[in-house]
Design a protein that fits this description.
This protein is an alpha+beta fold. It folds into two domains: 138 residues, FAD/NAD(P)-binding domain (3-Layer(bba) Sandwich); 141 residues, D-Amino Acid Oxidase, Chain A, domain 2, CATH 3.30.9. It is built from six helices and 20 strands. It has an eight-stranded mixed β-sheet, sandwiched between helices. It has a six-stranded mixed β-sheet with strand order 9-2-1-13-20-19, with helices on one face. Helix 1 packs across helix 6 and helix 2 crosses helix 6. It is globular and about 65 Å long. The two termini are 25 Å apart. Bound molecules: flavin-adenine dinucleotide (FAD). The site of flavin-adenine dinucleotide (FAD) has 36 residues, from helix 1, strand 2, strand 3, strand 14 and strand 18.
Length: 348
């Protein structure tokens, strides 16, 4: 078989590498730098903790596959520091973990089990011991090395079914494949019909004050009282990365990237200044990305004939699982089941 993968982000590269391992002839089209768009930056949070038991189970499978990748890469791709979810959603997420049979613990603020940069937060804290820091920098090296010459630097203009196969057009070139998988992130909706709303998002890194204890756990805060919800974790050594659920009106697509980044930077820095005494409120690095405000945590698959596409939010933690799943489905013509919030069930 000959299969095209459109997009060389973490999902596309994982899929292309899984196809290669099945002995399938694959071309992975990437318009820019591999893992240079939504997969940019050095770290992300891994967590089993989700609102839905099926997502917890899938994350557990992905964690096992990350361990296999780490063996192959010769370096840990997820640092085992654990993840903590505090505030409004902690109890609901704990129930989903219990239903899925995942190890977890619910504690109150001030528990000695918490190694967070702040202890004054509301509500219980859900400890997810299988969570940790995903080393995106190491994953990039691993996947780019594994894909080798099968990475094709080209922007795909169209993916069309023809009687002889799937035609992929990139500028003046057109090639025909037995099947195609679209994993183009922000570019997917231009190639196949999926929800296309977009917002800007910013994660900012701050220096950890000298002498502060390391390592910290990853931390997801979900306060109920209108305060900024955040995700936070150790990024590069000595730096603490913080992203936030900034009000949609401040980060809208129409408002533009510059205004969205500025508003996010101000809110995140004010949050750090008020709540994180171990961190200097001095921004030293940032990662911008786009996301779909209508999607929560969930995995979505669409098939149109021999063309399969996937989309969703927070996909880094599912990369090895998505790669294996998409490779299998592309080869056998099946459509993987959606997972997560029921209202996002497939319409295809
Ligand atoms: C700041 C930030 C924090 C995040 N936190 C987490 C987290 O804690 N945990 C987690 O699991 N996830 C997290 N995520 C989300 C996660 O990083 C993304 O969901 C994931 O990287 C998406 O990968 P992707 O391959 O789908 O998309 P991308 O990385 O965007 O890859 C798509 C690729 O397709 C290419 N492309 C697009 N159109 C075309 C075309 N027409 N032709 C050829 N190539 C094309 C693009 O150049 C791009 O490289 C975070 C993301 C950001 C930015």
């Amino acid at each position: 078989m000959k299969i095209a993968v459109i997009g060389g982000g973490v999902v596309g590269l994982s899929t292309a590498v899984a196809l290669l391992r099945q002995g399938i002839d694959v071309q992975c089209y990437e318009a820019g730098e591999p893992m240079g768009e939504r997969s940019a930056g050095d770290t992300r949070i891994f967590r089993l903790a989700h609102a839905f038991p099926d997502m917890v189970e899938l994350a557990a499978r992905s964690r096992t596959l990350f361990a296999e990748w780490s063996e192959l890469a010769g370096t840990p791709l997820v640092e085992d520091v654990g993840t903590v979810v505090s505030g409004a959603h902690a109890a609901e997420w704990a129930t989903a973990m219990a239903t899925a049979g995942a190890a977890h613990e619910v504690v109150e603020a001030g528990s000695p089990l918490l190694r967070l940069p702040a202890r004054d937060f509301s509500g219980p804290a859900l400890i997810d011991p299988a969570g940790g820091v995903i080393r995106v920098d190491r994953i990039r090296t691993f996947l780019v090395g594994a894909i080798g010459t099968r990475l094709r630097p080209a922007h795909v203009d169209a993916v069309e079914e023809t009687p002889s196969g799937v035609r992929v057009t990139a500028g003046p070139d057109a090639s025909t494949f037995d099947a195609a998988v679209i994993c183009a992130g922000e570019g997917t909706s231009a190639l196949i019909d999926i929800p296309s709303a977009l917002e800007h998002h910013l994660r900012v890194s701050y220096p950890i004050r000298p002498g502060a204890p390391e390592p910290f756990q990853c931390w997801i805060t979900k306060p109920a009282d209108g305060e900024l919800g955040t995700y936070q974790h150790l990024a590069a050594p000595g730096t603490w990365a913080v992203g936030g659920d900034v009000d949609s009106s401040l980060v809208s697509w129409a408002g533009g990237r510059e205004a969205a980044e500025q508003a996010s930077l101000e809110l995140l820095t004010a949050y750090v200044s008020e709540h994180l005494p171990f961190v200097e409120p001095r921004p030293i690095a940032r990662v911008h990305c786009t996301h779909n405000p209508d999607l929560e945590d969930g995995l979505h698959f669409v098939r149109r004939g021999r063309v399969l596409a996937t989309y969703g939010e927070n996909l880094m933690k599912f990369a090895p699982l998505l790669g294996a799943t998409l490779a299998q489905a592309a080869a056998d013509g099946s459509t993987p089941a959606n997972a997560g919030p029921p209202r996002h069930e497939a319409t295809a």
